[in-house]
Specification:
The chain is mainly alpha-helical and about 260 residues long. Helices cover about 75% and strands about 0% of the residues.
Length: about 260
């Protein structure tokens, strides 16, 4: 007499084994659930995208009336600048998660507080990016004067994300101290990472010299670690790469199309 439980589990196990063979995933040891490929890639691309976005808007005064006026004159340039900056900030969360996991493996407290504070700060920056996008759409539909008046009227309004502004500033310092104390980063790179705390925060904030210093520190702190992380394990075979890359690109394309439709 056959065992029904065994006969039902076998097809599922076979499908799972085939998927693992076709699209293998490395064990997540010391890097949290994201692994070295996602974390390492994010450490390299996130700071670079933010720096590129900051440089594109660097010639315009940083305060919001000038940013809105710049969008009226150069909509494609400003939309690209803010989009790159927002995309880079989004990519920082997997980068920070992996750094915090490495710190936490040696000191749970530093990994917990550094990672949590920076992550909450990144949520606040995502909120600011949404407000930036809406303000730019007001420029296109109502004109720059009306958009500036609308932003001015609501600039100091309360929102729950305002409570996370302190996390934006303090989080990078705590994370950098934790990385230095646990030797995840050397003293020079940890100090560079801590400079990210100087990056201006808020709605429609452009680029200042301090912004470029902070982003240069972010690049110096994260990018070498990301490259080392990508090199520290075996490289995937060409066959695996040719399977993962098209799947990833198709998934991203579908996400963009569905996002625009919804």
């Amino acid at each position: 007499m056959t065992n029904p439980t065994r006969s039902m589990a076998t097809p599922a196990a076979t499908i799972g084994a085939r998927l693992h063979g076709a699209l293998p995933v490395e064990r997540l040891e010391g890097t949290g659930f994201l692994g070295r490929w996602v974390g390492g890639t994010a450490m390299v691309l996130g700071p670079l995208l933010m720096l590129a976005g900051a440089l594109l808007r660097a010639r315009f005064h940083f305060f919001y009336p000038d940013q809105l006026a710049a969008y009226e004159r150069h909509p494609i340039l400003m939309a690209t600048a803010y989009g790159l900056f927002a995309a880079g900030s989004l990519l920082l969360w997997p980068a920070v998660a992996v750094v915090a996991a490495r710190i936490g493996a040696r000191s749970a407290g530093w990994g917990l507080w550094g990672g949590a504070l920076v992550m909450f700060g990144l949520f606040a920056r995502a909120f600011h990016a949404g407000v930036d996008h809406l303000a730019f759409q007001l420029v296109g539909s109502l004109g720059v004067e009306a958009a500036t008046e609308a932003v001015s009227a609501g600039y100091g309004a309360f929102h729950v994300f305002a409570a996370l502004n302190l996390a934006i500033l303090v989080g990078w310092i705590v994370l950098a101290l934790g990385a230095w104390r646990t030797r995840v980063l050397g003293p020079a790179r940890a100090a560079a990472l801590g400079l990210t705390a100087a990056l201006p925060l808020g709605v429609l904030k452009g680029t200042t010299p301090l912004s470029l210093v902070a982003l240069a520190g972010l690049c110096a702190g994260l990018m070498p670690l990301g490259l080392a992380l990508l090199r520290e394990g075996p490289r995937p075979s060409r066959k695996v790469v040719l399977r993962w890359v098209p799947l990833t690109l198709v998934t991203l394309g579908l996400m963009v199309l569905l996002g625009q439709a919804g």
